[in-house]
Amino acid sequence: MGSRGEGAQRAVRVPEGVDPEVPQGGRKRPFGGLAARRAALLTPPHPRRAASGGRTPLAARGPRRSGLRPRLYRGRMPYFDAASAAPLHPVARQALLAALDEGWADPARLHREGRRARLLLDAAREAAAETVGCRPDELVFTPSGTHAVHSGVSGALAGRRRVGDRLVVSAVEHSSVLHAGEAHAAAGGTVTEVPVGRTGAVDPETFAAELRGPDGGAGAGAAGSGVALACLQSANHEVGTEQPVAEVAEACRAAGVPLLVDAAQSLGWGPVPGGWSLLAASAHKWGGPAGVGFLAVRKGVRFAPQGPSDERESGRAPGFENLPAVVAAAASLRAVRAEAAAEGARLRALVDRIRARVPELVPDVEVVGDPVRRLPHLVTFSCLYVDGETLLSELDREGFSVSSGSSCTSSTLTPSHVLRAMGVLSEGNVRVSLPAGTTEADVDRFLAVLPGVVSGVRDRLGTGAPVPDGGEDLVVDALGKRCPLPVIELAKVIGTVRVGGTVTVLADDEAARLDIPAWCEMRAQEYVGATPSPRGGHAYVVRRLS
Amino acid sequence: MGSRGEGAQRAVRVPEGVDPEVPQGGRKRPFGGLAARRAALLTPPHPRRAASGGRTPLAARGPRRSGLRPRLYRGRMPYFDAASAAPLHPVARQALLAALDEGWADPARLHREGRRARLLLDAAREAAAETVGCRPDELVFTPSGTHAVHSGVSGALAGRRRVGDRLVVSAVEHSSVLHAGEAHAAAGGTVTEVPVGRTGAVDPETFAAELRGPDGGAGAGAAGSGVALACLQSANHEVGTEQPVAEVAEACRAAGVPLLVDAAQSLGWGPVPGGWSLLAASAHKWGGPAGVGFLAVRKGVRFAPQGPSDERESGRAPGFENLPAVVAAAASLRAVRAEAAAEGARLRALVDRIRARVPELVPDVEVVGDPVRRLPHLVTFSCLYVDGETLLSELDREGFSVSSGSSCTSSTLTPSHVLRAMGVLSEGNVRVSLPAGTTEADVDRFLAVLPGVVSGVRDRLGTGAPVPDGGEDLVVDALGKRCPLPVIELAKVIGTVRVGGTVTVLADDEAARLDIPAWCEMRAQEYVGATPSPRGGHAYVVRRLS
User: Fold this and answer.
1) With an 8 Å Cβ cutoff, are A14 and B118 in contact?
2) Given this model, what pLDDT does residue B344 score?
3) Regarding predicted confidence, which is higher, B33 or B150?
4) What interface predicted TM-score (ipTM) does this complex get?
């Protein structure tokens, strides 16, 4: 399967000399250009000034001079992509700065700088373990959440090689889990993806059945099923739906299968329900620095680290410890947790407002994900007849930074694997994830701006007025046309056939497979099915019901 | 083989409540305790103060209040372990702080924060590539130098699987290279270690012969030799000896074998001579932050990244980019390079002074490594009849932070693999590596303190006065005694046998294998050889010559 995760969104190529701060056609503000700042960032200052700790041109342009700072930061303009990365929490920044002074040395050394680093590392591990809910010696720091997942999956699979080679994962895991699964399959292992319902959650019973093996066998012993490891995220990164971790953990316990929980999206909001065997997380999701992940492996879980051996982090995460970042990660997790209940409730209400208002304000929208069992800060919706990349770019021009799982914003030109697994509309997809501190006014402004942005995109794509109805069955050739054009073509002509008649859309864009059925559901038309088309792609048949 | 690298020094276990800043028996300075600081580091401040950017207790204890800062930093007390990790360069600190503001977002995203991060990442890559001497699209950022080596070795071996499965490395590579070799061997591959001479350098001809294969075959084509990859460090991390990279690169070119150069220790001092195919480096060695390595792979080198796939860093380094640290790493490399010629010459003279003075000031010392073809800032020597861990601890008490390759300071209880490969004395081993800014006064004070420290350790171990000579052959039972006791026992009794008579030392400490022959060479006695002893360990036979 073509899994698509956090990192897959196509990178925009900004030509040399173009300042990404300046909206197209906008005026460049004096002194504020990134080109100048990045030149300053990478140019060594005069050695004497640097040695004396003197201010460099960059330092002189630092945080205090607000006129020279990008106007986006510190909540001045709404950044709504916290699920990708959150700005550094003030506590993380302070801890990082202090640990840069205290903790730059090698914690494996015997000298005082080394011992000081070792104490900081131990203290960070204790703090992190307490927040995660495990023993300090069960937790190691990794260079990223992705590394934590890769190491956790490969180590647990190798540790239980004798039990079997089956890996069971939900279909909506983060790409790091799915990629680890692909590597396992490429090495001869078996990977089973547990499907999800329309809200994006797995059914615990379905998951449990996979643990019992294809023949339904084994029951309490794992030997019969051959399942070495199960993986389930705590909450989905694209639609926010919480997974039934406690129930699945209980099923895993009953089947004798260890459960790895990818807690990247939720750990800042609270501990993962007990019963997990391995847990992975990523600090930059909760306002910690980049470069730090956690991998916790409960005592008693068979675990055999893969790859070259290394003395550091119990042999589970090779390489010199990124100590300042580790300290900052642990400190910021504590800090965000202290604020999580209050801030979570506040953001939950803001997201509720988005979930309720968007369908009222914008026609032909599908809000996806579980409305209740969800992350507090995240909501995803899709807009019919809209090109996701244009929508993102128009929202960006209005000052709103969001993310999308639409096919046209991914490097693979396929819709997000999460939306596909859920079977929901993918065109014009928008993920809004609010960072801590988002205000009601930010959200209101978003809701004020969105309808005009969507209708502007739709107008330009020419969804047009329907033609009078009553005609014969039609075939629409949308081969070579990219999302959302096949759906737009369908919508244009459906009114021209008689009720009971069909429109057949020929399309080779991957998103059509998801979006034409989703359109039918939204418009109460009948989706008859798809057959391979002789000229490539598929023929999607839709019957007009009303 | 029991390879031992940078990270293998045994971590000291400081009991809870003991402040590592306070020498044993010393007085604890008020307010300066690490326990208080680390508590502050990891405790979230009052949310309101944090949110408003207010100063936390930690911030209030920050860099400006010098009375509360550890007295070690900013060159106040000599830190002589720069080859393990160097304090953050001021330019790195400034770049890091700026990039924390500018570059926290996901560079794969389309919104303005993402585009800004992407531009910073691209600029850092251009700067790093320029300094390394390669094209930007040939260089990726990894989470550490160890990761760069692991990925580089596994990717190059996999890319040339059809050519063969042989990996040729020098015997004195960093542990990350040797561990990658062990993993290759465990997977069925072949690893050949090229020996080094007494200075620690490989002989280019010997290296070239290994590339031609065991049968001397193949010549220009690699098919006959089956060598998939060769690895050679630019300079040794324990003794500072520069390797003949240009000559070996030429031999590799002639044999059609790609050469991976681990440039971790030298990149801050200057570019690696051309001809390499892959290059690995580590930012915290040149005053960049932890958490960043470089891996450069020349265009045309067959390379197949191993492990789960990932969209980031050309698929060669999975996980969210550690962008602020990457920017700081590139900026500080430029900065240290700008100062490298002048600072290198200055430190080279200081090291020359240590190399010349230590043998004059301290009896029974062997200074190891090449005196000329070497890193500017690093010197290693070993002291007979001295326990390395005690020596480190006494130097630490005097304020000097150094490192050691002695067996008693390693977790494996074996001497450093580098010293073993060189065949030099390992007991009482000290590595001095000077950070930029080390003063003549620092070095003079070290030279003033060292003789007393060494003789103090020797006195406590009781090297004692020799017994009158003329007696029969002797057998000394040192089984169960740890380094340096077997050599001390030998030295005590050698004078008691007649000239031409022998002393047989029974010892099971790993270091004896290295240190008894080394002692014989230093003392102009004859090392006859070793045979396995029936009670475990070996019987080392030494003939008295004078």
Assistant:
1) yes
2) 97
3) B150
4) 0.83
Q: What is the pLDDT of residue A42?
A: 61
How does pLDDT run across A60-103, given as a tens digit for each residue?
333 333 333 333 334 457 899 999 998 899 999 999 999 998 89
Best of A113, A122, A237, A391 to disrupt the B interface (most B CBs within 10 Å) is A113
Render B163-181 in DSSP notation, one character per residue: T--EEEEETT--HHHHHHH
CB pairs under 8 A between A and B: 398
> How much of chain A, in percent, has pLDDT values that exceed 70?
82
Q: Tokens 């342009």 belong to which residue?
A: A61
How many H-runs (helices) and E-runs (strands) does chain B carry?
15, 14
Is residue B220 classed as helix, strand or coil in its secondary structure? coil
- The single-letter DSSP state of residue A268 is G
- Whole-model pTM: value is 0.84
Inter-residue contact A407 to A504 (CB < 8 Å):
no
| Helices B440-461, B388-397: crossing angle, 10 deg rounding | 130
Q: Does residue A310 contact residue A140 with C-beta atoms inside 8 Å? A: no
Number of H helices, E strands in chain A: 15, 14
Residue numbers in B near A343 (CB within 8 A): none
* Residues sharing a CB contact under 8 Å with residue A393, sequence separation 6 or more, in sequence order: B110
3-state secondary structure of B527: strand
Residues B503, B407: contact at Cβ < 8 Å?
Answer: no
Question: Torsion-angle region of residue A500: left (phi > 0), alpha (psi -120 to 50) or beta?
Answer: left
DSSP B184-213: HHHTT-EEEEEPB-TTSPBPHHHHHHHHT-
Percent of chain B with pLDDT over 70: 82
Read off the pLDDT of each residue in A481-505 and give the average, rounded to a whole number. 91
Give the length of chain B.
Answer: 546
| Least CB–CB distance from A146: residue in B91, B112, B319 | B319
Say which residues have a Cβ less than 8 Å from residue B341's Cβ, sequence separation at least 6.
none
pLDDT tens figures, A404-450: 988 877 777 788 999 999 999 999 999 999 999 999 999 999 999 99
Instruction: Round the CA-based radius of gyration of chain B to a whole number and report it.
Output: 25
Catalytic residue among A252, A408, A483, A520: A408
Average pLDDT in chain A: 85
pLDDT in tens, B196-255: 999 999 999 999 999 986 555 444 444 457 999 999 999 999 999 999 999 999 999 999
> Which residues in B lie closer than 8 A to residue A91 (C-beta atoms)?
44-45, 50, 56
Q: How far does B220 lie from chain A, in Å, by closest CA?
A: 31
Query: Scanning the structure block, which residue is given the tokens 């093996």?
Result: A213
Q: Give the residue from chain B lying closest to A339, CA to CA.
A: B47
Q: What are residue B168's DSSP bridge partners?
A: B192, B230
Three-class SS of A286-301: CCCCCCCEEEEECCCC
CB B454 within 8 A of CB B429: no
Cα–chain center distance at B62: 31
Instruction: Look at residues A295, A367, A2 and name the one whose alpha carbon lies nearest to residue A171.
Output: A2
**Residue A408 annotated as catalytic:** yes
Closest approach of A401 to chain B, Cα-based (Å): 5
Per the CB < 8 A criterion, the answer to whether B345 and B376 are in contact is: yes
